[in-house]
């Protein structure tokens, strides 16, 4: 067992800390995994909540709003305190231009131009297909997430 602090460490019961070790801190702390709080062992924390928050697999975000100008003006707004906010991404787009009777066509961004077939010696009267693939312009996965490193969250229980 590793000691994060003790009763005189100056940290309030209910404070959440990010823990980078696989070994648990002292029994003054409970993992934030939704577990029930024992009212006899942790009466101060139990007075605040009956279960620890469940922070497994989610990112914590500061409450409120702020505007940034990194990639255009964007207002970043959290959900209400303690409320889970669903994932989202900024819009991904591209352009497609083509001519019905010509072989010419252009696509950029997330679009890729696919020549279906063209008839005749001059390649007139063919068709184009278009594919949409976000991985052409951004990294993709089965979830939306910022670059990250895993930590374990603990809450001071006594």
Overview in brief:
With 158 residues, the chain is mainly beta. The chain has one helix spanning 43-48, and strands spanning 16-19, 29-31, 65-68, 74-77, 96-98, 105-107, 111-119, 124-132, 152-156. The protein is 4% helix and 28% strand.
Detailed description of the structure:
It is a single chain. The chain has 158 residues and is mainly beta. It has one helix at residues 43-48; strands spanning 16-19, 29-31, 65-68, 74-77, 96-98, 105-107, 111-119, 124-132, 152-156. The strands form four sheets. The protein has a three-stranded antiparallel sheet with strand order 1-9-2, with no helix packed on it. The chain is elongated and about 85 Å long. It starts with 15 loop residues before the first strand and ends with a strand. The mean pLDDT is 83.
Q: Topology of this structure?
A:
Elements: E1 16-19, E2 29-31, H1 43-48, E3 65-68, E4 74-77, E5 96-98, E6 105-107, E7 111-119, E8 124-132, E9 152-156
Antiparallel strand pairs: 1-9, 2-9, 3-4, 5-6, 7-8
Provide key terms for this protein.
single chain; 158 residues; mainly beta; three-stranded antiparallel β-sheet; two-stranded antiparallel ribbon; 1 helix; 9 strands
- End-to-end distance, in Å? 16 Å
Q: Count up the helices.
A: 1
* Helix-residue proportion: under 10%
Q: Which strands sit side by side, in order, in the main sheet?
A: 1-9-2
> What is the average per-residue confidence, as pLDDT, rounded to a whole number?
83
| Anisotropy-based shape | elongated
Largest sheet: 3 strands, antiparallel
Low-confidence runs (pLDDT<50, min 5 residues)?
Answer: none
Taken as a percent bin, the fraction of beta residues is: 25-35%
Secondary-structure content class: mainly beta
Radius of gyration: 26 Å
Order of helices and strands: EEHEEEEEEE
Number of strands: 9
